[in-house]
Specification:
The chain is mostly beta strands. It has 2 helices and 11 strands, in the order H-E-E-E-E-E-E-E-E-E-E-E-H.
Length: about 210
């Protein structure tokens, strides 16, 4: 009986603790959707995220102004380069990447909006406990929702004066990289030179989704 009481007290203390900013797992595989306010864009992408190597692979399918597209990108922050990969034609386009690498995390200066259950709290396994945070950064305003346990991303709403609102939702997340080859350049991309000159070329993560024609 004393053991049960002690366990109940420990559980109550854990539940009473206030949420804290957290770092998401440094290796993640999953899928995401992105929709934008200022442009008629909706996109779905499989992703591989590597915080150690500062790399992000996006295999993207979407719709812009009623036109569908499929694009494959590898963002290599250590090289300051974006690779647009076409495995069918075995061609590769290398473009400058002007963004600094931003780890997926809830920064320490973030403010807690609240804690909630996604789904239902009526029974075991029916809901997911999440925390929502707001972050003011030089790039703009972020509202991010992550799981209470594991700090797994659920969704992020970003706003800046130029692009308006961008909503990103994450799902099918798996800790780790299920296919490490996805983060390596294909052999036909080796030796690619950076191409510049077009203002429509994406040079940051968000512009990958805002510059579809």
């Amino acid at each position: 009986m004393k053991v049960l009481v002690a366990l109940a007290c420990i559980l109550a203390c854990c539940l009473a603790q206030a949420p804290h900013p957290c770092k998401m797992p440094p290796l993640l595989t999953g899928a995401l959707t992105i929709s934008t306010q200022t442009q008629k864009l909706w996109a779905y992408a499989n992703y591989e995220y590597d915080a150690f190597g500062r790399r992000l692979r996006l295999t993207e399918m979407g719709n812009y102004e009623n036109k569908t597209f499929t694009i494959d990108y590898l963002l290599h922050y250590r090289e300051a380069a974006i690779y647009e990969i076409d495995t069918k034609t075995r061609t590769c386009k290398k473009m400058p990447l002007k963004d600094d690498f931003q780890p997926w995390e809830i920064p320490e200066n973030s403010s807690l909006v609240g804690q909630a259950v996604v789904g239902s709290s009526s029974g075991p396994g029916q809901g997911l406990l999440v925390n929502t945070w707001i972050t003011i950064a030089p790039q703009g305003k972020y509202i991010s929702t992550v799981t209470e346990f594991g700090c797994i991303p659920v969704n992020t709403v970003f706003h800046d004066g130029q692009l308006g609102w961008t909503v990103t939702s994450f799902f099918n997340n798996v800790i780790g990289i299920t296919d490490p080859n996805k983060l390596n350049l294909p052999d036909f991309c080796q030796g690619a030179e950076i191409e510049t000159g077009s203002e429509d070329e994406p040079d940051s993560f968000l512009k990958l989704f805002h510059k579809k024609q």
